[in-house]
Amino acid sequence: MKKIPYGMSNFRAMREEGYLYVDKTMYIEKIENLNSKYLFFIRPRRFGKSLFLSTLENYYDINNEEDFEKLFGDLYIGKKPTKLKNSYMVLELDFSGLDTGNRERLEKSFKQNLIDSISSFLNKYRNMFKDIDEIKEHIKKKSDIKSIINQLIEEVEKVGKKIYLIIDEYDHFANDIIAMGDSEFYREIVRASGFVRDFYETLKIGTKRVIDRIFITGISPIMLDDLTSGFNIALNVTMDLSLNEMLGFTEEEVVKVLEEVGIEEKEREKSLEELKELYDGYLFSAEAEKRIYNPDMVLYYLDSIVRYKKPPRNLIDDNVKTDYGRLNRLTMNEGNKVLLERIIKEEGIVAEIVTKFSFDRMYDEEYFVSLLFYMGLLTIGMQEKTRLFLKIPNYVIKTIMWEYIETNLKKEYKINLDLNELRKTIEEMAYEGRIKPYIEYISQNVLKVLSNRDIINFDEKYIKVILITYLVNSKAYRPVSERETEGGYIDIYLERDIRIPDIKYEWLIELKYVKKSEKDKVDKIKEEGIKQLKKYRESRGLKEREDVKQALLIFIGKDEYQVIE
Fold it and tell me: What's the CA gap between 424 and 420, in Å, rounded?
């Protein structure tokens, strides 16, 4: 039984210490065969980027030749190695955690990070250099970033070797600056004579001498457009069809993972079904056929199953939730805020994905939507005529969206609910089979509080989002919007959450909204709604179940409603 490497990104440690490793080494061969030596590849946070970079580092490092068989022997690339294996000095740079307090502090932090990384590089290849301490001192005394890189290039050139350069979190500091909304700060470092531009221009020049290959990762293409003239050599392979499954797990890989971590055969189908709903759904190329599971979340879930024999209490770990906290900062702009609410209501949007970002157009609709795609909050759904439909990928990302709605309602309308009272109404629904207390509570404490200007955007979908939003944190139900049955699509199906398996009743809900001016249509709408409920109830899988209750909810304006159970 393999150990679960949750949170690990050290390839060597995983291979030497008996951890599970999903073999992605066939992609080493694929990326070598691409038309460029300088690659740019982005994926959402916690999606396996650092582990893949560690795999590359161990494969290409000239120091690891003697360990090749031990590390790679039983993997794809171990059986079919390329000519470039163990042929480079590998320089790794990671630009997370830099000081973004102001321009001077960032430049100082960036420079020190570069010096420290080069120092580690020199130590790693100590046996190949003469007077290594003297070289380090020379580098420390350099006043600018160009000189530091040029000194390294000269030293590597002297020993007749080539560098494979790996850059992780290339955009981390830029994302922090953007989140602060400081456009002038950003322009100073990236445009014209900015030190970030200088850095990439020097790397470009270095490719003519000793920098033979470059692999850059991050979570957005935010600097690509601004760096184009200074670094126009990188091929953006983010949406390359052949690399769709390079990071993350395919369903076949998840099945194998379940087996290797010791999930009993009789439990595997149930676990796979759960993992699929929670963490699957990502597609990074419109032409690709296989959807991808978030690997970090799969391992997080399985760690709890293996250790405690039950799912984690929180379906998404706090580290990932913190990363998605950026969502609130990105919607400080009113246009983005309105657009995100629309996406949540519609569970997606028709849009094109922008492959290069410019800070100047960050608040254009297509740029903001594309950023949500790169963050993993949206993914490719299907081709909609000439454009793509981008959808919310899975249940845990929906919960992040719903929590965003709750946070903003609390902030904008000062809605602070009594959680004990709210919980009691949900428990009545779950254990007593009475939905009216919950609807009454939300109607009185949320819907009525909304300002009159919201009546313009007030509709059935908006009410649905609010009803679901305040259910999610109870962990009693897993709301399913537009669940398909033989009788049509159920507006809301409240499925018991596996974390609280003793929930007595599930709910089948049909939702209607009528404007005050159309109140005379309520009787007809009620009749239609009851017919629809009956159709759903007669569907296969629901007809015989006594634990499924049903309700028709008719909202009239924002402060009146009827519940027909």
Answer: 6
